[in-house]
Write a structure and sequence with these properties.
It is built from one helix and eight strands. By secondary structure, the chain is mainly beta.
Length: about 190
């Protein structure tokens, strides 16, 4: 059975529409309400947010439980993985300890940050933070989803606090936590 030639442009248009990937994220993000001291400086706008689920990791040293890094995955509003959060060395600084890092799950661009403000909101949850980006890197194919980030806020935290129990040197504790992260970039003037 022959199909009318008029249907081929329609089929081609449908195939093209279906094959186009959805946008990675929207640049229209409403910043959260935060306590004094956690506001992002003027000239920056929220462009991305993610809900994190993971652990805050602690090791027992002679001084007691000591934080040694996060391990978390950030998801968008559709429960799609968008970012991985961990601790890594900053290739842009020498002689500094590892930095908190966020890496885009698709283009592998990443940013490394330094906490500049912290507020404890709940005694049984890790603090809310304002983090300034101190290093950024495009992905290997030029992806830059995160590399323009200037500041990050961690808010609405649940869990993640260090154990209060006695410990033996070398013991580790991976304490579950959740939080929301908001990513900011400089406003470009037209």
């Amino acid at each position: 059975m022959r199909r009318p030639a008029a249907l081929f442009p329609v089929a081609l248009a449908m195939a093209f529409t279906v094959s186009q990937p959805p946008p990675a994220h929207a640049d229209h993000v409403t910043p959260p309400s935060v306590p004094a001291g956690l506001q992002v400086p003027a000239g920056n706008q929220a462009f991305r947010e993610g809900d994190a689920i993971g652990t805050q990791d602690y090791i027992c040293l002679p001084s007691g439980w000591t934080f040694f890094g996060p391990q978390a995955t950030l998801f968008n509003e559709h429960d799609k993985q968008i970012i991985t959060h961990f601790l890594s060395p900053n290739p842009f600084e020498t002689g500094t300890p590892p930095r908190v890092t966020w890496q885009d799950s698709e283009d592998t661009s990443k940013v490394l940050g330094m906490t500049i403000a912290s507020v404890s909101v709940q005694p049984d949850a890790i603090p809310w933070l304002l983090v300034q980006v101190v290093g950024a890197q495009d992905g290997p194919t030029g992806g830059d989803e995160l590399s323009e980030t200037t500041f990050i806020q961690r808010v609405n935290t649940v869990g993640g606090v260090a154990p209060t129990t006695a410990c033996t040197v070398g013991m580790m504790a991976l304490v579950p936590y959740s939080a929301e992260y908001f990513f900011y970039k400089a406003i470009k003037h037209k």
